[in-house]
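Lab channel / #folding
Pinned by the channel admin:
"Please post every new chain as: sequence first, then the structure tokens as a reply. Keep commentary short and put observations after the output so the thread stays searchable."

First post following the new format, from NK:
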Amino acid sequence: MDNLVNILYIAAFALFIYGLMGLTGPKTAVRGNLIAAVGMAIAVIATLISIRDTNNWILIVAGLVVGIGLGVPPARFTKMTAMPQLVAAFNGVGGGTVALIAWAEFLDTKGFSNVHESPSVHIVIGSLFAAIIGSVSFWGSIIAFAKLQELLSGRPISVGRLQQPLNLLLLAGAIAAAVVIGIGATNDGVPQYWMIALLVLAGILGLMVVLPIGGADMPVVISLLNALTGLSAAAAGLALNNTAMIVAGMIVGASGTILTNLMAKAMNRSIPAIVAGGFGGGAAAPGASGSGEQKQAKATSAADAAIQMAYANQVIVVPGYGMAVAQAQHAVKEMAALLEAKGVEVKYAIHPVAGRMPGHMNVLLAEAEVSYDAMKEMDDINGEFSRTDVALVIGANDVTNPAAREDSTSPIYGMPVLNVDQAKSVIVLKRSMNSGFAGIDNPLFYADHTSMLFGDAKKSVGAVTEELKAL
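Reply from TO:
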């Protein structure tokens, strides 16, 4: 029986890794997800087989039923525009589960005092590490969800200069509680309130770490929290001597860490600077330049936009969160099809942090059946803007801001952006002149070769499409 369980675990791990490889490209992402899901099903079956005490099977089956009931409906019915919130929520549930497992292990072993098998130190350390990181991940993900769902402001929420000292104090308190519990494990255990104090301090730390982080950094935050959840799961697996949790947690932790590093580089910001918070959401006066000069943006019409694009050789569409909010991806696909029928080459420029999570724009465009070959990453498309007749920006603010290249006083200076301003003509679709999620004004909107088409992105694109049909 043990050999069968090990064989099943090995098969599950292979499918995890193979499925993860599929996520490296949009063409294989769906298949990769399904392969990894099959691997997880095999790991669950192997774990059930390994359980000797069948008295717990009723609770286990009940847990599976509840998990399926809570997991499947949101995954099936959540709109693609709300996918970042769903990712944050699911990630938080994972971290919270790990924290509860650590708490249950504490109660089951009476404060780890009756853990006598050798070596027992991995049970104590693994459980305490999982409790701290899992709690941080759960409560941090709750704040990320609330900001993405706009239940909380996307702007940084902090206590000013006391923010970092307070975070360090909370971390020190959680570690101190863990040390007390660890020392008590070699004696007669410690009262349960020490474990509760650890979980509470770590939970408040999770809240306080994510609250000061602005909306512009949210894709990196989601990735970082995902990595933390994986590491906490691996630690819990170490405590429970569960191979599946160890391997799956390490895979999630490692891949999440790599993705977090890549996302941070895409924004030219260090991970410590992101965790320190404060970037994104600050107010900016629309039309105000660094010298205080007030600028005016030029408005255009759907008819003018259609004429410009219809007679262009190449059009580059730059999608942003505004496209997601308006659910305009299908309308954009229809407009692009009309342009291509007229001989216009249409490409899509994808910035690594456009939207609210990694790959957000790719997911939306893929849902509208946009060709994967037409989606170009920033490094591949930036050189083409200077040869492009029209760049159509749909609800993207911060990732098209030329101040990141030109203004050393800008908060986003040094952040790689799409070279939209180098196109011969730029058309920006926005509801208003309000700044983006980072709260920073965009000089592109006031450039001589830029015109603004105001309104809901889906309706604006639909109006342009009707004008194209009439040409």
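NK: The longest helix spans residues 121-148.
TO: also worth noting, The beta strands are 314-319, 345-350, 375-377, 390-394, 425-430, 450-454.
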